[in-house]
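Input structure tokens:
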């Protein structure tokens, strides 16, 4: 703690104090005194009173489903059954069916093709074995001089051709297996199933419709929770981090508010009208259905929320991450080191180092008048206090 006393010197004198390894200038926090008629100096003080400051980033929000998918057709076909808007389905329950007659036929053909390919491979393998045995016999005869060179070369060429036939049969078999898998998948795709527990939000087709591959069939959503998405500009995004408390209010909720935490912050900005905008979101339980996808709400992200003694922000200065303010006591200005909390730009919370009721010195700024000043933090007025100066008496 440092004290400053005032003798018969000019009001504008600068007092320089040193503590340990750091230097601290008191110019910004000492009195910027106004001269009264009798020559005394005045300083402005504010009484430290308990209060709370909550610093928030606020933005309109849009209510969305926690998860939502646009389900598309993977085949072409005729719709024979479909769910209706509002239907609730558990995971793997049927949402829509196509007429699967063609797909069943294709599957049967693929099964027969696979059987034929397996037979063809066995035949090729048998032929190769026979050709190899014939070549071995002819090579024996050729060694004894009973066969000509052209005859043995013809036998060797026949074996090469049988090897190629076996390779071709294997390729045909693999292709038949792939065709069978595709046919099975196409038949499975004649039935559209729910990817998770959810609700049908919208349907785009009806029974009897002929649709092509890639057609959007319906919108399906998980409404067990709701996601609220909002936009934050580049000025405020630096204040946010995942897990911060979030307060949700909406007309549909009346006087009620919902509390949750910040769940997502977009890693990159989207530039809109030359302004960098980041998207953020929070998740809440669906509750009683007061909030529904497509509705609007207000999101307040609480950056800091502290209780303590409120003082004007400009009464506190910092040096190397430490905070200080001046208090007026026993006709002296005393410097105190304090711990601070939330700061809304006008007032801040002092959590340690200051007692309730102490008079905090508020540095004056250019054009500031002590007369008629507005109330400071917690409704405490900034008051001028005379202290002895040159050429006057108390």
């Amino acid at each position: 703690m440092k004290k400053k006393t005032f003798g018969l010197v000019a009001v504008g004198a600068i007092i320089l104090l040193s503590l340990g390894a750091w230097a601290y200038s008191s110019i910004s926090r000492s009195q910027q005194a106004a001269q009264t008629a009798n020559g005394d100096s005045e300083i402005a003080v504010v009484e430290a009173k308990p209060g709370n400051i909550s610093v928030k980033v606020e933005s309109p929000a849009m209510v969305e489903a926690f998860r939502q998918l646009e389900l598309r057709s993977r085949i072409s076909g005729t719709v024979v059954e479909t769910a209706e808007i509002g239907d609730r389905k558990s995971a793997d329950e049927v949402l829509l069916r196509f007429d699967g007659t063609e797909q069943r036929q294709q599957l049967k053909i693929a099964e027969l093709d696979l059987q034929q390919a397996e037979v063809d491979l066995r035949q090729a393998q048998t032929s190769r074995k026979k050709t190899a045995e014939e070549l071995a016999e002819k090579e024996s005869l050729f060694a004894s001089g009973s066969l000509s060179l052209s005859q043995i070369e013809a036998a060797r060429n026949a074996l090469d051709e049988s090897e190629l036939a076996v390779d071709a049969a294997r390729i045909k078999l693999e292709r038949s297996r792939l065709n069978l898998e595709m046919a099975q998948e196409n038949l499975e795709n004649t039935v559209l199933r729910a990817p998770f527990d959810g609700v049908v939000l919208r349907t785009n087709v009806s029974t009897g419709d002929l649709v092509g591959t890639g057609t959007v069939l319906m919108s399906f959503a998980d409404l067990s929770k709701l996601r609220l998405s909002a936009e934050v500009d580049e000025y405020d995004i630096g204040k946010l981090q995942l897990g911060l408390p979030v307060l949700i209010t909406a007309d549909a909720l009346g006087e009620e508010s919902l509390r949750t935490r910040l769940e997502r912050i977009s890693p990159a900005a989207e530039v809109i009208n030359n302004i960098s905008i980041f998207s953020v979101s929070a998740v809440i339980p669906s509750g009683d259905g007061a909030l529904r996808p497509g509705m609007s709400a207000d999101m307040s992200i609480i950056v800091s929320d502290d209780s303590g003694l409120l003082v004007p922000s400009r009464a506190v200065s910092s040096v190397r991450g430490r905070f200080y303010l001046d208090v007026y006591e026993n006709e002296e200005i005393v410097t105190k080191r304090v711990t601070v909390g939330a700061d809304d730009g006008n007032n801040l919370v002092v959590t340690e180092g200051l007692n309730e009721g102490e008079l905090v010195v508020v540095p004056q700024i250019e054009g500031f008048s002590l007369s008629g000043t507005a109330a400071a933090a917690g409704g405490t007025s900034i008051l001028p206090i005379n202290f002895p100066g040159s050429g006057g008496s108390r």
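The radius of gyration is 42 Å. Residues 269 and 278 are 5 Å apart (CA to CA).
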